[in-house]
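Sanity check

After download, print the first record. It should look like this:
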Amino acid sequence: MPRTFRIAVIGSTAKGGYGHGLDTAFQDVPRTTIVAVADDDPNGLKRAGQKLETDRLYADYRRMLEKEKPHIVAIGPRWITDRVAMVTAAAQAGCHIYCEKPFAADLESADTMLAACRQANVKLAIAHQWRAIPPVQQAIRDVRGGKYGRLLRITARPKDDHRGGGEELLVHGTHLFDMMLAFAGMPRWVSAHVTTGGRAVTLKDRREGTEPVGPIAGDSINAMYGFDRGVRGFFVSTANLSKRGQSRFDNLYGLYLECERATLALRQPGDLYVYPAPIVLPDQTQLAWEKQWLQEWHFTAEHKPRPIRKIWIRHGNKTLAADLVDAIQRDRDPLANATHALAITEMVQGTYASHLQNSRQLPLPLGNRVHPLTESGR
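Expected structure tokens:
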């Protein structure tokens, strides 16, 4: 085990950049040092080198892996056009991986990448920063520990801006599915219905998103996922419910948990609210939402409010980066691990597979690994 882990960063300024701060995820993480960065955009590469304070700059990430021999690689691009190539190259170079979401466009790609990681015996963590925020971690411990009674249902809502429906299933749905897994364990089945303009989606409705995240379809999704102990998870999304400058709210993004004795609401950037009943009862005026405050998270040592909205993503990246280092040292799974990355891809692809089979309940994992929005996946 090295005394100091050598970190290399892969970005692509014109193709998804460095994700949500993945270039700086390992800055200030103990026992790590950023040694090199690769970017196929010359100007972006120069800026990245200055930002990361390294002069080891590479236009080709494969050349960087060969020359620098890092222990860990941060794979930053939001676009997934080169995701399989980047992950497999890093794994074959013996590098552990911290990777931007979404992990994969389809199960075939996910299977290929995870097979490469298993063969090389390297660990992979996904940048699902939300699960690393202290109030969220506290909520996971409390729910799994039975503080609010038995968990019954989880409902996930993405931002539901212009990307609502198919694009949000991948863009923010992956974060929300990761949270479902944290609270409820692995999904067992899926049943879903996807529409566009009020009618059921067909293969002809396949399209590309705002950024390349894989095949998508639909502007509205209603999906249900089955978990052990009778827990049900729901992903519901409709485009253009939140319109910048027009809506009275900024977004709908959140996770809502119905337990026997309480309802929990998790809102960006990870704040937790608790309501003392399984559902909200507007006529019961003695019941009210209560925000859960954590001194060490919400306030400084001087008890001044922290600028949470400005720091939460960086905090999440640093926490997950440090967790990956610890996972390597202890030979355990990272918090946001490869098993979860595959399960999330199953949930996304399973949504379309179920819809195109008349919303039939399909077992997870899926037997057919080809994406159902492709002709060969029918």
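If your output differs, re-run the checksum step. Summary of this record's structure: The longest strand covers residues 187-196.
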